[in-house]
Amino acid sequence: MKVLIAEDEPLAAERLIGLLRECDPSLEVSEHVDSVEEIVRIFATPNSIDLLLLDIQLADGKSFEAFDKVQIDKPIIFTTAYNQYALQAFKHFSIDYLLKPVKKAELQNALDKYRKIKAKSIQPEEIALLKEALKQNNTVFKERFLLKSGNKLQFKPASEVAYFFADGKVAYLVTKKENRKFMIDHTLEELETLLDPVNFFRISRKFMVSIDAIAEVKGLISSRMEIRLNQPCEHDLTISRERVHAFKNWLDR
Predict the structure, then answer these.
(1) Which of 25, 117, 120, 168 is deepest in the core (most CB within 10 A)?
(2) What is the reported pLDDT for 134?
(3) How do beta strands 76-80 and 51-54 pair?
């Protein structure tokens, strides 16, 4: 099976290729591109690709734009940090929609689904059922955090969090109004799937910020970017290089 991967974040692409090889060593990643333009170039001529793994936000736009320029009739697994494009994805030959960070078990299930579809042609009524099921499967994001303060328990709504940070194996949230930090029982990896990606973005291995807490963004000579919050902050909030492009797309949504 020959696979095309469209992913503009090098680390994410490397991780995805590694997961594919773990799921099925016989898979061949025949193409790895990072732009809509390259997808169009490949499908403008005959090719031997069997399956596409497409990120939605690419270097020069959304991967959906490729469908308006060339005919792509191969099965697609979408891999993205954004859940709001799910219905749009299923307008195309999408067999699954995986939210980042992609988990091995979810990718394995998607590949198994591909093989089943390949074994028997999928009927229009089955596609309609998939779309309807997706409409009913509304994602519910975490709304509040239970916190310990001395011998008391309290909770903070997610909307009151300015940012999260990791210190070793322990993670904390920092509130907007009081600018207080509280230990939480989640890792930043878990928060990426629990929190609404419209409101929160993980800028680096150690930090995740709320859109409402950002006052300004400055570019650094090293091509990285630095965030200034609209409240005091004891940390230097620098966006890691591999996340800069995704961060800009997040701001411009």
Answers:
(1) 117
(2) 55
(3) parallel
How far is it, in rounded angstroms, from Cα 163 to Cα 12? Answer: 23
Mutual orientation of helices 10-23 and 104-119 as an angle, nearest 10°? 60
Instruction: Spell 2-14 as b/e; 16+ CB within 10 A means b.
Output: ebbbbbbbeebbe
> 75, 101, 136 — which closes off a domain?
136
58 and 154 co-located in one domain = no
Residue span of the structural domain in which 210 resides:
144-251
- Least Cα distance to 75 among 47, 113, 108 occurs for 113
**Omega into 101 within 30° of 0, i.e. cis?**
yes
| pLDDT grade for 118, boundaries at 50, 70 and 90 | confident
Of the candidates 83, 108, 136, which is a domain's last residue?
136
Considering the domain architecture, whether residues 11 and 128 belong to the same structural domain is answered as yes
Model confidence over 7-41: pLDDT tens digits?
999 989 999 999 999 999 989 998 899 999 999 99
How far is it, in rounded angstroms, from Cα 203 to Cα 200? 9
- What is the amino acid identity at position 38? E
The secondary structure element, H or E, covering residue 200 is strand 200-202
56 and 137 Cβ atoms separated by less than 8 Å: no
- 100 and 167 inside one domain: no
